[in-house]
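task queued by scheduler; priority normal; single chain, no ligands, no partner chains; default sampling; output format set to structure tokens
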Amino acid sequence: MAALPHDSSDQTNSSKKQSIDIIGIQEHRWKGSEDFNTKNTQDTTWVLYYSNADARSNGGVGILVHKHLYKFISSVKNHQISAGYAPTKIADDEDKDRFYDQFTKACKTCPKHDIVVFFGDMNAQIGHNSQGIAHKNDRKWSWMHPNGYKRELDHIAVTEKWRGSFTNCRAYSKVELNSDHKIVSCHFQLEFSRQVLEFKKHTTFNWMILPNDNEKRTNFQTKLNSALTENLRCNNDISTDKMNNILISTITKAAEETIGKRNLNPWALEVTLKLIDNCHNLKMKYLKQNESHRNVINANHLVNKSYKQDRE
């Protein structure tokens, strides 16, 4: 904007119609009593956070936030939203260097996992299309020179990690700004990468061998008693949860060293598998050669009977 009027209802009403909740303000030219100020709009539906303009009332940046987001400003810690504007091409090199040094410093001070958003009049053009959704040219340019040519000078920058959460970046002509710039907005929908959960494989030990194998049963009891005695001697005053963990780990280690894992047998035995093949062959003969369907029924009966025996 060329300057932010004290009555900003035109801007806020137009933004509300386009479902815009946060507005970055550049060059508002306001001066407050503090370095960082807060001000409510006249309709009390928006709150303006802004820094002061200089002594000549030039510059100044701020962020307009709709009331339904205002309550989150002091509690949400992992969002960093900043507004600014870059010096023009004809500005002094010292001013340009100072701006980009401040911009770089602000980005580096943000934790790497935070959602960092920076928007403003960057007075610069970028290369390929990065709106997220293809738009016609009228929705791309954000500034028009008095001579009539148009440029994309206003941008919204986000950290690469959260790039997928920001879509449909475009410029609006319907939002009244009283400026030679158009408002640029984007849609934000938080997306998290899918986490692949790693499940720990449960080990099944061959406990059924203990009643029948005296040697392994004796070795297991000896190992278990020795380990439990040592652990209890070293941990006299421990909690119930810790005692439970010690007991589980001790039994597991003793079982690994003496009993071993249980080899799981195939659920269906070889006899059943042969009956299944025979049933399949009879079914194919019935379909192709019109043989008796009674043979297929009898074969299915034998398969089911064999399955039942395998379960037992």
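post-processing summary
- Helices lie at 9-17, 67-70, 93-109, 214-234, 240-258, 270-289, 293-311.
- Residues 214-234 form the longest helix (21 residues).
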